[in-house]
Structure formats: C-alpha cells, structure tokens
Amino acid sequence: MSELVIKNLHVQIENKPILKGLNLTLPQGEVHAIMGPNGTGKSTLANTLMGHPSYQVTEGDILFDGKSLLNLSPAERSHLGIFLAFQYPVSIPGVTVANFLRTAVNAHRKAANPDDKGIPILEFRKIMKEKMEMLKVDSAFAGRYLNEGFSGGEKKRAEVLQMAMLQPSIAILDETDSGLDIDALRIVSEGVNTLRNKELGVLVITHYQRILNYIQPDIVHVMMDGRIVESGGPDLALDLEEHGYTWVREKLENGTSA
C-alpha cells in the first residue's frame, strides 16, 4: 500500500519562507484533515505537493511510495497517482468536460504504457456515464465547457468527477469548501465519500470545520507557522470550531505542542 510522506519540508516563495519543517504521513485508505488560520501555509503545501514551479523547496523531501517527487513535474506526479482539487478551478472555454476527461485519462494511460492508443470512445463513454451516475451528476454536464459559467458547486463537482475518472492513490482537496453554500457543500462531500475506499488517501485542507461534518477524517492536524503543531482525532476539529486557535497558539508559544 502506497503512502505520501512529507519529511521536514521547508518551502519559500519569492524568497519568503512559508513552510518551516512540516512533517506528515498520509497512507492510502485514510482521510487526514489539515486546519489552520489563514496565512499558515495550507495552500502552499497543496501547491508544493503537486509541483507548482513558483514554490521552492529549500529543505526536506516529499516521498510517494518511497520515491522522491521533488524533481518530477506536475504531470509526472499526476501520472504516479497524486491528484489536486483546486480551491479556485479555472474555466477552459471551448473544451467540454467530456473531452477534457478523455484527454486526461489518455495521458495517464500513455504514461503507464507508451504504446497505448488511447481509451476507445465507447469504453470511455460507458465509464464516464457510470461515474456520473455514481456521483449523481446530470448527463448534460459532459457537453458543457469546463467550468465556463459553472456555479461554485458545479466547479467542485467537476473536480470530484475528474478524481473519479483518474482514480488517484492520493487526493488533495485544497479548501474545496471555499465559496460553497450548505447544499453545494453537502453534494460535493457526498461525491468524495462515494469515492472513499481503502486504495485512496485523502488530504482535506480547510479553514473551517464544516466540511468535516460531511467528510469524516481519521486524523486532524493543526497547521501554524508553516508546520504541523497539533494532531488528534475528529474531536480536535470540533474543539477548534468552538474555541478557535488561541489555545493552540498558547501551547506553541509555551513549547508544548507536538
């Protein structure tokens, strides 16, 4: 079973240190949540894991299945089984959801087997229809241009559909709850829960506890000052919702946090 291991990760952007010795292990089959105030480096972590070129790793390593990801491109990381659901998905006018998904699936097949000729169109349509029915996505969704004119909830459902089609080993959800009302959040969360299985590790990055009412984490981590300073079970998220982050800051200042 694969796992994502982050070891003493230091990251800077434009010479400004953001992550300052972050350690985390996420096995397949587990759901971990990272919570923390704004500006603590949560989205920096997500972008770094996926290989965004603007984020410079100055120390530490990111291992997936024992292999370092640091010298791999975002596409190569994706082909290995890492998936990032964006906080703010961009629109691609002129490219339908179906064409985008088929191109992505074919890229993964080609990476696994250079001689692969691509998924047959009938097979692709069958699989896509099954995934859309499983996620309760209307069939008309496939013919729309990717994220163009989509509501916040539709954009996030498109991300979950991509995850269903690509079947990653590790999925990183970067503040998927951002910009969603309660109904959209519930629908998107149900989609994630439908895909949840022993072969998928999920890292839920969020500022608020509310998404964790729907996606139950195995472990909750608190991030401050660019590193994990507290970890616990699902009740930790409830404590943060009720009491805020002051008590964590006090433990950090007193040198008693993990």
UniProtKB/TrEMBL annotation:
Organism classification, top ranks? Bacteria, Bacillati, Chloroflexota, Anaerolineae, Anaerolineales
Question: Gene of origin?
Answer: sufC
Question: Which keywords describe this protein according to UniProt?
Answer: ATP-binding, Nucleotide-binding
UniProt-listed NCBIfam families: sufC (TIGR01978)
The similarity annotation says: Belongs to the ABC transporter superfamily. Ycf16 family.
- Tell me the protein's name: Cysteine desulfurase
The record ties this protein, via SMART domains, to: AAA
| Pfam families for the chain | ABC_tran
Species source reads: Leptolinea tardivitalis
Q: Name one molecular function that GO assigns to this entry.
A: ATP hydrolysis activity
